[in-house]
Amino acid sequence: MNVIEINNLTKMYGKSRGITDISFHVEEGEIFGFIGPNGAGKSTTIRTLLSLIYPTSGSATIFGKDCVQFAPEIKKEIGYLPSEVFYYDNMKVKDLLKYSASFYKKDCSKRIKELAEIMDLDLNKKIDDLSLGNKKKVGIVQGLLHQPKLIILDEPTSGLDPLMQQKFFELLEEENKKGATILFSSHILSEVQRLCNRVAIIKEGKIVTVEKISTLQENNYKKFKVETKIPLESNYFNINGVNNLEIKENSTSFLFRGNINAIMKKLADIELVNLWIEEPDLEEIFLHYYEKEA
Description:
This protein has two domains: 2-217, Rossmann fold; 221-278. It is built from ten helices and 14 strands. It has helices spanning 42-49, 71-75, 93-101, 109-118, 132-144, 162-177, 189-195, 213-218, 260-268, 282-289, and strands spanning 2-13, 16-27, 31-35, 57-62, 65-66, 78-81, 150-154, 181-186, 198-203, 206-212, 222-228, 242-248, 251-256, 272-278. β9 (198-203) and β10 form a beta hairpin. The longest helix has 16 residues, at 162-177.
């Protein structure tokens, strides 16, 4: 069964673009990545899905029910973490979470304690006294306290330190093992690669592709930068799979997709001063991996 089905979803803000003709589905029990640069339309899609805003055209269902028509009913089974969390400042964390739990007609107190322990969150503090990272933790606990069947996360790791991100990912994997379906929206490719089975990539309000992560990785570019004692000839790296070659004095940079040994053989023949090989960021993958779609 598909937990989420989105069909030709469009949201316009007057004449300006929100999202155009978005279609993808999320299967039950999967961790699905939703990725794109900031401003690509991820939050608009999620807010429309949660009927916090209404679509201009197209439709979406969650648990097989129309998102707009059955919104109140659907929301009981969803945990949502927005990209930015805002709270009543003078409330204590535990009071806020208790208030949130009261909407779900079940006792969540044990779960709140468990989650606060995992996320290292002090329940007795006032919201006002919390750092940005700790406010984010409150949002995480709030989104998971009722053990929802569907967890929707919008840029969930911003503000969390690396150790907390690690704990948070483990927590999500745990929830997923228990049967929760997760929609994970991010502009950070490594997060999505770590967690997700499949991913939808959005760019300028449109879906560019829906891929298995394994396929994305196979087709992924590596970013090379080579510093040499003397400038290289522009045709030195004339190898299949080399793109975006730039030579500035003694520094040569390019993107490469293919068998890395071909490049290593070339590199072995020159006197190197320095060498950098890194994963390209999302923007670069967009620019090159999707040139064919563009």
